[in-house]
Amino acid sequence: GEALEVNQEVNCVTDFIHGCEDQLKKLKKQKEKGLLYGIPISIKDHINCKGHISSGGMVKFLGQVKEEDSVVVQVLKHQGGIPFVKTNIPQTMINYDCSNLIFGQTLNPLNPQKSPGGSSGGEGALIAGGGSILGIGSDVAGSIRLPSSFCGLCGLKPTGNRIRPFVLTVTAMLGPMARDVDSLALCMKALLCQEMFQLDPTVPPIPFDEQVRLRGAPM
After folding, report:
1. pLDDT digits over 41-64, tens only?
2. CA distances in angstroms from 9 to 3, 93, 110, 169, listed in the order given
């Protein structure tokens, strides 16, 4: 409900992910509760979700419905998280604004006259507006860090190849965005699990180190 309200104000959601209630029912039956149990999570547009498109803000991808969840979405679900919306990005994503010809311009909820930044601008706007508590963005040259800064949030671009979205000549990283650092740490801890290492053998099988975080060293 809150995501809908925020979306009406700032135009940050591109799609609502179906099957959330079914997934919650399935989770309730499981004996082991994951680290993200029951947490609704917003997902940046280009990250594949089964039964949905990943437009990249480009018309040519509108007919291509994805048949499988990406690894990161599979791991989020394994940990009890519930991906519930996909969020807006600039066309091609190589931009620090957040606008495309399909979904239009996303506004900054702190000041609608301003941009939320990009390319994870829909994530920034939705979380800052109170429509999501945890989101997954991606970053090559600032795409998590810029919208986090513009929208007054916390964001993390992990070390190269820590959580891989897709193969690029430049290393792009998926990473969490939220309102506080503890949420980022919880998300990283949840993602860097055995399930992730099995699904994506290119990810070094190194769990999240809570002690390093508490010492204030880079995550």
Report:
1. 999 999 999 999 999 999 999 999
2. 10, 22, 11, 37
From the candidates 55, 143, 148, 183, give the one annotated as an active-site residue: 143
Strands (E), the chain: 13-16, 40-44, 82-87, 99-100, 104-105, 134-139, 154-155, 173-178
| Residue tagged active-site, from 44, 77, 86, 157 | 44
C-alpha–C-alpha distance, residues 218 and 35, integer Å:
22
Tell me if 12 sits within 8 A of 106, measured CB to CB: yes
In terms of C-beta density within 10 A (0-12 exposed, 13-18 middle, 19 or more buried), how is residue 110 classed? middle
Does residue 189 carry a catalytic annotation?
no
Given 54, 70, 119, 132, the catalytic residue: 119
Rounded Cα gap, residues 38 and 189, in angstroms: 16
Tens of pLDDT, residues 19-49: 999 999 999 998 889 999 999 999 999 999 9
Rounded distance between C-alpha atoms, residue 96 and residue 113, angstroms:
15
- For Cα atoms 155, 157, 163, give the angle at the middle one, nearest 5 degrees: 120
Q: What is the CATH number of domain 2-216?
A: 3.90.1300.10
Which secondary structure element, helix H or strand E, spans residue 8, and what is its range?
A: helix 2-10
What gap in Å lies between CA 61 and CA 38, rounded to an integer? 31
Q: Quote the pLDDT of residue 218.
A: 58
